[in-house]
Amino acid sequence: PDDPAKIVTPTESTVPYVAGYTPQVNGKDLTPVDATDLSKGYNYPTPVDPGTDTAISYQANTQTITVNLVDKNGNAVKNTAGQITYSVTGKTDDTADFSGITTSDKLVKGYVLTKDGTTTTITYGDGTIAQIVNIVYTPVGSYQTTSPDGTTSSLQYPNDATDPTKITTPADTTVPYVAGYTPQVNGQKLTPVDATDLSKGY
Predict the structure, then answer these.
(1) Residue 189: closest CA among 202, 176, 180
(2) CA count, 13 A, side-chain hemisphere, 106
(3) CA angle (112, 115, 119) in 5-degree steps
(4) Could you report the per-residue pLDDT of 91-102, keeping only the tens digit for each?
(5) pLDDT per residue as tens digits for the range 73-132
(6) Residues 67, 133 contacting (CB under 8 angstroms)
(7) Which residues contact 101 (CB under 8 A, 6 or more apart)?
(8) Is the dihedral of CA 183, 143, 168, 82 positive or negative?
(9) Which residues pair with 1 in a beta bridge?
(10) How far is CA 61 from CA 32, 44, 69, in A?
(11) What is the pTM for the complete model shown?
């Protein structure tokens, strides 16, 4: 108002706050009115040329989704790489890409995967609420072997290395041979490793 040849920045209005986005001019973030409360908006920048429009655009902020490996009770479980959690990042309103979490990342010894939250389509939020996705596991069973003398042994079902939702049969161990006895499961005799030499086990 004191110099008709000049313009000033607005003092009674602000650039509106949009959750998950930051207003910019020429790639530079605008200054918030209150850095502790972004909902108050942002200060308008000082125009460079009185006769030229100033373009203000909103750029999506980087967001994070936490992926936890848990059992059905929500307790953390550790995969074969020793990890219990992963993070993926992207921009507000973009679709999350979980492809970086591989099949081997989802293998948990002694558990099978029963619910995989990363297989659903999830959009990054605006950052006001933490986003958490769970991969849920259930403990596997085991072989319970009772010898003729009454002693018992247990062998946990091994994981299928190619599919975290499955188990497989042991490849490096056998049911021991006991002379005069044949091991059974539910009344069905087990198959010997070598029918010509039962001492090799079943």
Answers:
(1) 202
(2) 26
(3) 120
(4) 999 999 999 999
(5) 999 999 999 999 999 999 999 999 999 999 999 999 999 999 999 999 999 999 999 999
(6) yes
(7) 67, 86, 88, 118
(8) negative
(9) none
(10) 15, 19, 26
(11) 0.83
